[in-house]
């Protein structure tokens, strides 16, 4: 799950980034409204955390710009403005959820997962495909009911593929989903994660579609 944090408070953004990465999110951070507005418009995110009190732009203006351009990425507003009137304005501007500071990282993570589930039409935090089951909230994987230990990157790779079950997923897509923008990306590592998943889940769990990418097997 790839998210963008738009927050000018450096300490808070670092705490959010580190906390969400522990919850197995891939996180990009923008410190200004201008940078955040650009990333939110041009990059593909599963959800965006948006602070309203940015130094160079009002967060609500950024949100209105995205919605006017039909950018429907789920947005969680994070702000010190805790009164009901500010909340109402934010939701009417197109926000999907609202959380006032101070907050707990666990609650932010839970709200993000709920927003992403709704965006994908999923009522549960558990993804299922054939004999595979992935509990996003508990970060647990099972096949035929048996628990399988996965590394963080293996888990995120499998989660992305299960969300796109039935579709061919390219190495480029997986690289974008797994790594933040400031990380030196190497698509060859995707091959390593796929190989590890096959060893743990079974050789038939992931198919290679020559020249295009990967697809979850039917079993």
TrEMBL record:
GO cellular component: cytosol; protein-DNA complex
DNA-binding region: 124-218
Sequence ranges assigned to domain Response regulatory in this UniProt record: 2-116
4-aspartylphosphate, modified sites: 51
Superkingdom, taxonomy of origin: Bacteria
One GO BP: regulation of DNA-templated transcription
Listed name of the protein: Transcriptional regulatory protein QseB
Organism: Methylocella tundrae
């Amino acid at each position: 799950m790839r998210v963008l944090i738009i927050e000018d408070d450096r300490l808070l953004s670092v705490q959010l980034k580190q906390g969400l990465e522990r919850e197995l999110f891939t996180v990009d951070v923008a410190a200004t409204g201008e940078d955040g507005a650009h990333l939110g418009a041009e990059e593909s995110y599963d959800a965006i955390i948006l602070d309203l009190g940015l130094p160079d732009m009002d967060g609500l203006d950024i949100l209105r710009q995205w919605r006017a351009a039909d950018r429907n990425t789920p947005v969680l507003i994070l702000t010190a403005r805790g009164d009901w009137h500010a909340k109402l304005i934010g939701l009417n501007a197109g926000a999907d959820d609202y959380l006032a500071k101070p907050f707990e990282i666990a609650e932010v993570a839970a709200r993000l997962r709920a927003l992403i589930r709704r965006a994908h039409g999923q009522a549960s935090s558990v993804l299922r495909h054939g004999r595979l089951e992935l509990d996003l909230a508990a970060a647990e994987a099972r096949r035929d009911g048996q628990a399988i230990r996965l590394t963080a990157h293996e888990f995120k790779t499998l989660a992305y593929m299960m969300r796109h079950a039935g579709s061919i997923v390219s190495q480029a897509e997986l690289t974008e989903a797994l790594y933040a923008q400031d990380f030196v990306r190497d698509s060859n590592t995707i091959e390593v994660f796929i190989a590890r998943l096959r060893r743990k889940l079974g050789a038939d769990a992931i198919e290679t579609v020559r020249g295009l990418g990967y697809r979850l097997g039917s079993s």
